[in-house]
Amino acid sequence: MEKFDGQNNLIYVDCSAGIAGDMFLAAVLEMTDGFDHLRSELAKISLKGYSLDLFRDKRGGISGLRFDVVSEEGHVHRHLSDIKEMLLESTLSDEVKKMTVMAFSLLAEAEGKVHGEPADHVHFHEVGAVDSIIDMTGAMIMLEYLGWPEVVFSPLNVGSGTVKCAHGVLPVPAPATLELLKDISVYSMGDPMERVTPTGAVLVKSLGGRISAGMPHGKIVSTGIGLGSRDGALPNILRATLLKRSDVFLYDRGV
Questions:
Q1: Cα separation of 227 and 24, whole Å?
Q2: With contact defined as beta carbons under 8 Å apart, do 138 and 38 qualify?
Q3: How many angstroms separate the CA atoms of 105 and 101, rounded?
């Protein structure tokens, strides 16, 4: 396994077309060429009946990777306790477990606040499905692979319009997403669509919510582009850049 220097590296994530868990993971996978490592680590979780697909495609003429989880699982509602148990009983590293549980806990708190119920009572719908669990856990696995570098995000393009989900047709950003994005710099641009998903928002929040309007100073080591499932006039891509730290490093803290 290639050894990455997390202390001297950082990742800058360009969210000018939004962010979703699968797009973030695809971008980091292209940046690291770490798909085999991801698969071997995910095998440590007691999730069955799924396969992973990583393939090259284009959005707006720009080449990148699309990450997809093909699941045989039907529509399953999971509580936070179910996901915690699944993760804590796995043989993943303690840090990956901690970070993934924290992310799902933040999401449960946001959903609970929106629906007026305790976090432990929240039924996860879309984000309780196998693909969302893999997206969130996979992101933490790959950040550990990189040595836990600091992650800095551009201001988030949240999109506009409406989105259809288990609770019906909701305004964009969806209520739980909006709750997670408190104190985070956001704006809206491009065709009406959901550009920041709940998994994308909770990744930003759980990784510290550090925002910079421009790329921090540093030497570019590698880049990766993750593709979303939809496209439009604004290419639906997320670009991640791995940088070796420079002496000058400025950003605005979003939280």
A1: 9
A2: yes
A3: 6
- Here the tokens at position 47 are 């999730």
Residue 1 lies in a domain: no
Give the residue from 235, 222, 178 showing the smallest Cα distance to 23. 235
Instruction: State the DSSP H helix or E strand holding residue 30, giving kind and residue range, or none if neither.
Output: helix 21-32
Q: % helix / strand / coil in the chain, to the nearest 5?
A: 35, 30, 35
Domain membership flag for residue 46: yes
Is the residue at 37 inside a domain? yes
pTM for the full model? Answer: 0.92
Give residue-wise pLDDT tens across range 109-156.
998 998 888 888 887 765 558 888 999 999 999 999 999 999 999 999
Residue-number span of the structural domain to which 11 is assigned: 6-253
Alpha-carbon gap, residue 179 to 109, rounded angstroms: 9
Contacts of 101 by beta carbon, 8 Å cutoff, 6+ apart:
83, 84, 87, 88
pLDDT score of 31: 96
Cβ count within 10 A of residue 188: 16
Q: Domain total for the chain?
A: 1
3-state secondary structure of 45: coil
Residue type, position 75, single letter: H
Sign, CA dihedral 207-211-217-222, equals positive
Instruction: Classify residue 218: in a domain, yes or no.
Output: yes
Q: What is the pLDDT of residues 51-110, one digit of tens each?
A: 999 999 999 999 999 999 998 876 667 889 999 999 999 999 999 999 999 999 999 999
